[in-house]
Recover the amino acids of this structure.
C-alpha cells in the first residue's frame, strides 16, 4: 500500500516535471527571433553592438516589404543610428542612412558586410554574429510583446482627459 502511494507520487512528480519543461520550451520558442520571411512580416528586437571603441544598444526593427528587408536600428534616445535595405535574392545590403559618428567610407563597408552576415545568421535561427577581423559583436534579443498592455493602451485612448480649473 505504501509502495503504491510512493510510486504514484513519483509518477505524478515526473509528469509535472515533464509538463513544466514542455511549457518552458514552448515559451522560449514564442520569445525567439523570427526572420521576417514573408511579405508584411515584422520583427522587433533589442540590439547590442559591442566593439573595442564603444558600444551601441537600442531597438532593431525589420520589415519584409515586397521581398526585401527594410531595417532600422534606433538607440535608447530615439536617434536612428542606421537604416538599411537588404535584398535576400542578391544577398546585398544598402545603407540608406548612417549616424554621423559612423558615417565614414571605411565604416560603411564593414557595416554593410556585418549586417549582411547578421541577417544570414538570423535566417538560420541564430541571434548573434561576431566579426572576428574587427572584433565587433552583434547580438539580437527578442522583445516580449505584451497583449494585455496593448489592450490597456487602446482602452486608455477612449477616456477623456481631466480638465484643469482656473
Amino acid at each position: 500500500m505504501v509502495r503504491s502511494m510512493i510510486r504514484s507520487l513519483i509518477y505524478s512528480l515526473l509528469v509535472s516535471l515533464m509538463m513544466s519543461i514542455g511549457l518552458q520550451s514552448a515559451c522560449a520558442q514564442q520569445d525567439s527571433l523570427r526572420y521576417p520571411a514573408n511579405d508584411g512580416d515584422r520583427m522587433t528586437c533589442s540590439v547590442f553592438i559591442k566593439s573595442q571603441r564603444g558600444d551601441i544598444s537600442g531597438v532593431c526593427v525589420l520589415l519584409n516589404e515586397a521581398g526585401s528587408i527594410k531595417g532600422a536600428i534606433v538607440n535608447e534616445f530615439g536617434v536612428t543610428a542606421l537604416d538599411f535595405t537588404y535584398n535576400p535574392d542578391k544577398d546585398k545590403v544598402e545603407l540608406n542612412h548612417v549616424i554621423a559618428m559612423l558615417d565614414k567610407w571605411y565604416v560603411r563597408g564593414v557595416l554593410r558586410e556585418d549586417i549582411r552576415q547578421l541577417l544570414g545568421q538570423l535566417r538560420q535561427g541564430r541571434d548573434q554574429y561576431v566579426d572576428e577581423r574587427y572584433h565587433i559583436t552583434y547580438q539580437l534579443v527578442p522583445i516580449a510583446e505584451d497583449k494585455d498592455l496593448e489592450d490597456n493602451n487602446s482602452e486608455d485612448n477612449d477616456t477623456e482627459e481631466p480638465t484643469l480649473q482656473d
Observations:
- Confidence is low (pLDDT under 50) at residues 8-30.
- Strands lie at 42-50, 55-65, 68-75, 80-87, 92-98, 128-131, 136-142.
